[in-house]
Design goal:
Elements lengths: L2 H13 L14 E12 L2 E8 L11 E2 L2 E3 L7 H13 L7 E5 L3 E2 L4 E9 L15 E6 H4 L5 E8 L2 E10 L2 E4 H16 L6
Parallel strand pairs: 1-7
Antiparallel strand pairs: 1-2, 1-4, 2-3, 2-8, 5-7, 6-7, 9-10, 10-11
């Protein structure tokens, strides 16, 4: 399957079902959005992650998708994801092709994160913000689909027993909310006939 065909099938799959919303009685969650940036390079689909600087107050030194809290001037959660992607990576929001939305994810920092999947240019021309991005990690999709890189642990979080996912790609460990979003995305990819190939 071509990369474009994969992206088209993901787009129709994500648009054909409503994304699950987070319902945590007794919790007040602030709104945030992220973009799961995918791109094609040399005929190979990739996923982009950023590593947050060690100096940040929350989630320091962790891998994440570009995104953040919703500002009052953001008309929709998607505006938040695209604005943050432009601020963090210098990717023009008009150049992002949005394929759809994944399920909402709650974080221990009390955000409800709405993840959007978007195709970005594959030219690798980023202008990262030094305040928000310490490192850019580009991973071929096939590398993320390798079952040997996934580890699952159980832990009590927000009053319930939950699975924690850890994806170890080389020396890079992706975990937390980013890993939960990644797992949801990869589940969609594996449902696409020929998408995991």
């Amino acid at each position: 399957m071509s990369v474009e065909a994969l992206f088209q099938t993901l787009e129709s799959r994500l648009s054909s079902r409503p994304a699950r919303e987070v319902h945590l009685p007794g919790w007040t969650l602030r709104e945030a959005s992220v973009l799961v940036p995918v791109f094609e390079r040399d005929g190979v689909p990739h996923v982009l992650f950023t590593r947050r600087p060690a100096t940040l107050r929350t989630h320091a030194d962790q891998y994440s998708f570009p995104g953040g809290g919703r500002d009052p001037e953001d008309a929709t959660p998607l505006h938040t994801a695209l604005r943050e992607t432009e601020e963090e990576l210098g990717i023009d929001r008009r150049g992002v092709r949005v394929l759809g939305m994944l399920d909402e994810v709650p974080t221990i920092s009390q955000y409800r994160v709405r993840p959007f999947v978007g195709v970005i240019p594959g030219d690798g021309k980023y202008r990262p913000s030094a305040e928000e991005v310490a490192f850019i990690l580009e991973v071929p999709l096939s590398g993320l689909l390798d079952p040997s890189i996934l580890r699952v642990e159980q832990k009590e979080i927000m009053g319930a027993e939950r699975d924690l996912y850890f994806y170890t790609y080389g020396t890079h460990v992706i975990w937390g909310a980013t890993a939960r979003i990644l797992r949801d995305f990869l589940n969609h990819v594996t449902q696409v006939p020929g998408g995991a190939g």
